[in-house]
Amino acid sequence: VSFTVSSSNGNATSPYQYGFMFEDINNSGDGGVYAELIQNRAFQGNAIYPSTSDYWNPLNGASIKLANLTNPVSTALPTSLQVSKGNATDTVGFSNVGFWGFPVVAGTTYKGSFWVQGGLNGNLTVCLTSNGNQQWAEAEVSVKSSATWSQYNYTLTPSQSAPNSNNTLNFTFAASDLTNSVNFNLLSLFPPTYNNRENGLRVDLMEAMAGLYPSFFRAPGGNNVEGNAPPYWWNWTQTIGPLADRPGFPGTWGYENTDGLGLIEYMLWAQDLGMEPILAVWSGLWLNNTVLTEAELQPYIQSALDELEFLMGDASTTWGAKREALGYGPFPINFVEVGNEDSLQPVGGPTYRDYRFKDFHDAIKAKYPNMTIVASFFDVAGDAPPYNAGGDFHEYAIPVQMSSQFFYFDNYTENNPILIGEYAIIDYDSPGATGPKWNAGAGRSFTPFWYGSVAEAIFLLGAERNSQKMIGAAYAPSFQNLNKWQWIPDLVEYDAYPGHTTLSTSWYMINLLSGTRITENLPVTFTEGDYNPAYFVAGRSEVTGSHIAKFAVYNSTGDVPFSMSFQGVGGYAQGNLTYITAPMNASNPIGGNVVQTHTTTVTASRNGTFAFSLPEYSIAVFEVSAN
Ligand code: AHR
């Protein structure tokens, strides 16, 4: 393939290009990026998922049950864990199984706390214990409980690491110190968090995200913003303030969300990784296909406006003052997405077009004229959002589909900024298949695999080549807890044991493409060849002052030779070629990596032509510094 990259007539690319989408699915919030280690810490429940004592067990003959006291720890947390000693006379207590185990890492300080009320007076021991009863770390807390609730803190610092996460957190005390029963709530244990934030995020998963160089953050994304059925929706007002004031939310993926990971935590997350928030607001649709009428919608539009005031208003505004009182300055918001995939529902689609999107759009624009409002659907087949609003395009596909989508966005106009809010190859190609299996249990790919990741790269280069129309693209879903998941494949897998965190082949693909940004796309003139089986974009970066070409080679018959030049780059210039490749069908094993990175220096010929070749199923970036 021979081509020349022009030095003029370019198009500025989107400043966002690659981003991150998050929703609590696959225990990716609770039990995932939200670093809390205790599962079911506050016995939250509702009509969809009633409160339960699951994940808690009595120890040494104690009995445990849920209790709705007349004086709970807070109105938001009405249900507590009541512990009685029964006939036990020795040490009694209870334990938590964590999010399928607890990590124990030598020298790490885990910070814990709990609220207690009732008849316990004496020392309570908190201990990280293996299933084989090895005690990794313990703390003694002198408890003097009474009719009113009080909070206690503890820390645990193991001196050796556990070989796995088969550990529990045990709370024990002498039976003789207990009169009648004692009640506990909001029992918590955190490892160190990213940027040491209180109530913060898991370090290895944040580092995994940082490695994607994400520029935008779509949250709360996906179905989880919607709610399964009335009256539950992602009500931001219930996700702010002290943890004791957050009742929790019946998530749409089969489990309760604690909402410890709330609106402010999302904003800090975006801030910590330098991401522009694309804030999703609820659009009046439940997943059971219940939709609000236009009149019923108005309080929820007001709630979205309140949310924006909460995030951006100053202390003279009602909601801005509440944020300031929590100790935070403003969080600028430039993008709001209304709902998620609203066009998919039989009632949802028409009502979204008739009034739901319009009413949110008009109200937000009236107050924030410069804000980009993103509709939750977009398809080139005539389904463009109104008012030049942005539109969210989702693509879950098989490789044969996505690898043919290099030119897909060429057909879109520049009238509506395109957000690829979710994309992924979710299944292998199979004879005759034109699309993926939608049932995650029906043999869908468990993890991303290499030729799928290369097909995704072709799709993304197609988006890059149309970057002037784009906001950017985000893989979905981002995380998978290996112990409980509803959707496969996912970008990053993990469980409670830090050594199991796995960056998928698609993670390596994004790491390469997102890590080198073209700020101006430039036209390409072929002297020989065409795009298939090599797909590429080229341009330059104002940031690094370099010329850049990015490639994906797919389904070739062998190595593909390239001969290319950048107008204005002279003879004997040098460039750095980085390409990644892996066996075609390979996926990353737990904690491992099959993707190989190759880097090499390429020197131009006397007339400025760079010659190199790339293997089949490879993704590459070639960068020539202007100097
Ligand atoms: O990413 C998983 C789900 O796929 C999202 O919740 C939804 O938006 C899409 O259908």
Q: Which molecules are bound in this entry? A: alpha-L-arabinofuranose
According to CATH, what is the topology of the largest domain? TIM Barrel
Q: What is the tally of helical segments?
A: 8
Overall structural class, as computed from helix and strand content, comes to alpha/beta
Rg for CA atoms = 27 Å
State the CATH class of the largest domain: Alpha Beta
Task: Compute the average pLDDT.
Answer: 96
Overall, the morphology is: globular
- What's the CATH superfamily of the largest domain, by name? Glycosidases
Family: Belongs to the glycosyl hydrolase 51 family.
Keywords: Glycoprotein, Hydrolase, Signal
Organism: Recurvomyces mirabilis
EC number: 3.2.1.55
Labels describing this entry:
single chain; 627 residues; alpha/beta; Immunoglobulin-like; TIM Barrel; 3 domains; nine-stranded parallel beta sheet; binds alpha-L-arabinofuranose; EC 3.2.1.55
Describe this structure in words.
This protein starts with a strand and ends with a strand. The chain has three domains: 2-13 and 518-625, Golgi alpha-mannosidase II (Immunoglobulin-like), CATH 2.60.40; 17-34 and 198-390 and 477-515, Alpha-Beta Barrel (TIM Barrel); 56-190, Galactose-binding domain-like (Jelly Rolls). The strands form six sheets. Strands 3-22-21-20-19-18-17-14-4 form a nine-stranded parallel β-sheet. The chain is α/β, with parallel strands linked by helices. Helix 5 (348-367) links the parallel strand 18 (335-338) and strand 19 (372-375). The protein binds alpha-L-arabinofuranose (AHR). The site of alpha-L-arabinofuranose has 10 residues, from loops.
